[in-house]
Design goal:
Two copies of one chain form a homodimer.
Chain A lengths: L5 H15 L8 H8 L3 H13 L3 E4 L5 E4 L8 H8 L27 H17 L7
Antiparallel strand pairs in A: 1-2
Helix pairs in contact in A: 1-3, 1-4, 2-3
Bound molecules: iron/sulfur cluster (2 copies).
One iron/sulfur cluster binds next to helix 5 of chain B.
The structure holds a DNA duplex (30 and 30 nucleotides).
Chain lengths: 135, 135
DNA sequence: TTCAAATAAGACTAAATTAGTCGTATATCA
DNA sequence: TGATATACGACTAATTTAGTCTTATTTGAA
């Protein structure tokens, strides 16, 4: 538990690569996969997620690839994590509007509120860590 | 990812229960399981883990159960998590002595050092949160 | 206009982890 | 000696993660 998925690790690597090579023309998923020895299809999907949230622009076709849209100091770990992981929270019940569908214990659970506070602190930690610090 | 396991949630609940009922005689796993509507066998194992690290004392036999050995303010979330989860880290490579067996990319990985720093901060966050704050 | 190289995306499979159960042994009190 | 409790390993089922396959589409250049 509390482990980052490979998906997230690859996402951080890819974002870092884009930030470093952002001088001029775009970068392909293949290039990143080969450079870091990580599965091509996997990293490609992560980049597609980035494109969907407009963190990067994707250019289709031959000579295509990806370009970072924002400055490394304007991208935080929480941006990266939340685009590639649909649920990056400590428990199923962390959202304000969580209900019994999220967790059957929600009505009597006494540890939820303290955990929400811990979650807030962790999120703030990730928000404070920018891509620039990882270059 | 980054989700606490049910094992950890039950552990926090059980520790909290012990801290609240620590007035006098001991508390059984059955009592905790029934009170929180969580699986008996599961919470029993968590309590056995606690006993192994001497966070609680276990009393066998009839009229047996568990008693907290330390004050709630002397028990932190990191104590609880590290006793019930053998590996609570962000990646497989967080230990100082990690090698290629941990992760094949370890020699060329550029995100490891920044992640170790994030890990340090998360651990410190858990260390600063005491059981007393969760009562 | 056709080929090569690239993104886009959904379906699928395999491996690993998590959650929970079962069975049996042991200890202790009444 | 029986009831009640911990101790603990083995097992199973469910879920999640990691990775692959396939097909479609876009675009630049020969
Ligand atoms: S309500 Fe309590 S038991 Fe349920 S997911 Fe939230 S913290 Fe965990
Ligand atoms: S070495 Fe890098 S890729 Fe491997 S587990 Fe550590 S952070 Fe992840």
């Amino acid at each position: 538990m509390l482990k980052l998925s490979k998906r997230t690790e690859y996402a951080i690597m890819a974002a870092r690569y884009l930030a470093l090579k952002n001088s001029g023309n775009c970068v392909t998923a293949k290039e990143i996969a080969e450079d870091y020895q990580i599965p091509y299809q996997f990293v490609a999907k992560v980049l597609q997620d980035f494109a969907r949230t407009e963190m990067v622009s994707s250019i289709q076709g031959s000579k295509g690839g990806y370009v970072l849209n924002r400055l490394p100091e304007e991208i935080s770990l929480i941006d990266i994590i939340s685009t590639v992981e649909e649920n990056h929270q400590l428990t199923e019940c962390m959202q304000e509007d969580a209900n019994k569908t999220s967790c059957e214990h929600i009505d009597c659970c006494k540890i939820r509120d303290p955990l929400i506070e811990v979650q807030r602190k962790i999120d703030s930690l990730f928000a404070q860590t920018s891509l620039k610090q990882i270059l």
